[in-house]
């Protein structure tokens, strides 16, 4: 956990996963009375709840926003579980392309991981229930929720991947999952946001 002094306030950054490992990406950012979770993935090397981020370190009810960077399972596959099995009542955002491909990949994840296993984290019913709860964001669209301003910028890497600029009372945090600066035939590279963040 990292605590950053900003004036009289503390900005806290706490990894719930992906700290010194690949998998179960989930980062908590707290500032003043706001809490944001960035990504919500599964560790592909572990089964069932062992692959989840360390959610026991937080109270999901305190989270205002869940922001997903892209559709790879280490960044998003715990979203259906989180939206259906916890007391999270905030908003979840991902880009339109990410949500479209997320649905296809997670349907396949459910099919492959369930088999004859009744211990799966979630099923197709959970996925169908959670999809309408996921809000879509467009690149460079400014969204305000509960006093928090968020904007997503192109991150390259895969279709729909984004980095999130979060503005809480004028303090700006920029978060990205995987990114690529390479321009490819089907995908532009990451863009540099026009607003300088206070914390990257």
Question: Can you tell me about this structure?
Answer:
18% of the residues lie in helices and 30% in strands. With 200 residues, it is of the alpha/beta class. Strands 1-2-3-4-5-6-7 form a seven-stranded mixed β-sheet. A hairpin with a 2-residue loop joins strand 3 and strand 4. Helix 2 crosses helix 4. The longest helix has 19 residues, at 96-114.
Provide a concise account of the structure shown.
This protein has helices at 73-76, 79-85, 96-114, 124-130, and strands spanning 2-6, 9-17, 26-31, 34-38, 65-67, 91-95, 134-137, 142-145, 148-154, 162-168, 171-176. It is an alpha/beta fold and 200 residues long.
- Binned strand content: 25-35%
Please give the number of β-strands.
11
Coarse shape: globular
From the N-terminal CA to the C-terminal CA, the straight-line distance is 15 Å
How many H/I helical runs? 4
Classify the secondary structure makeup into a structural class: alpha/beta
**How much helix is in the residues?**
10-25%
Q: Topology as H/E string?
A: EEEEEHHEHHEEEEE
Strand order of the largest sheet: 1-2-3-4-5-6-7
Q: What's the rounded overall pLDDT mean? A: 94
Oligomer: single chain
Largest sheet: 7 strands, mixed
Low-confidence stretches: none
Q: Taking Cα atoms only, what radius of gyration do you get, to the nearest Å?
A: 16 Å
